[in-house]
Design brief:
alpha/beta; 5-stranded mixed sheet; 11 helices; about 15% strand
Length: about 325
Amino acid sequence: MVIVSGLAPCAQYAFAQTYPGKPIHLIVPFTPGSASDILARAVGEKLAASVGQPVIVENRPGAGGTIGTAAVARAQPDGYTLAAVSAGHLVNPLIYGNLPYDAVRDFAGVIPLGNLPSVLTVAPSLGVGSVAELIALAKAKPGALNYASGGIGSASHVNAEKFRVATGIDVVHVPLKGAPEMVAETMAGRTHFGFNPIIATLPAIRDGRLLALAVSSMRRSAVLPQVPTLAEAGVPAAQFDFWIGVVAPAKTPREIVRKLNADIASALQSPEVSERLSRLGAEPMPMTPEAFDAYLRSELSSLAPVFKSPAATPPAR
């Protein structure tokens, strides 16, 4: 037994030296055309060219991303089955009971693909021009204001709940199908505010149909440089990174995880992929596998107090 255990690291190293020797499957637990899908395909194409093996992007949507993610948790930890997950990966265990996997322990973080900041918007007709004014209005009229989201567990829902908890306001949640509906309902004044993806909201902001109050990221957005961050607006606890990243089954050899990290980082830095992500409003999030693992643990801890119950803020009736 001593001899076998002593040889195991050497065997893993030798295996990593020949990796990859066959196609890599990158499972996207969302529908084609989603942000995770777009980023996965952009990176997968470049990664395939650099490693000399096909990278097959597979969409396995359903149950808030948990179906495809569960398949990766059960997969052989050999580096040939990966998942492109989003920030919702850490929300799912807080809103769904009895998941067939642990969102942290059953996965090895490989690398983030990027952060897609959201922007807090209101219709000009609401009559507020800043985050402070929105908070003041909500506190003056408890329960009278509502916010739009792309559904329970979506990035827009998470961001708005962090904002609600951080500010102590009493508002009603209106879950919708997605970003287009959120933009339309807020412009029409049927919902009062929302945290929308910048890319989906930019046209309405530029033509004055929506007013941008703050961006959700730690830094100002390059496409909305005049808009303050939530921290600058006085609500640092509401900051939220809607990240998309690659994870592998937990017991994947570290040499393979580090190789994937280096190869994907190289793909992200290529001019064609970098430009494509920039057009989507995605910001780089360079991290080592160890740093990504630590980030996942930290994010899960920070989200837990926000989602103490499956519904958090109850949807509008």
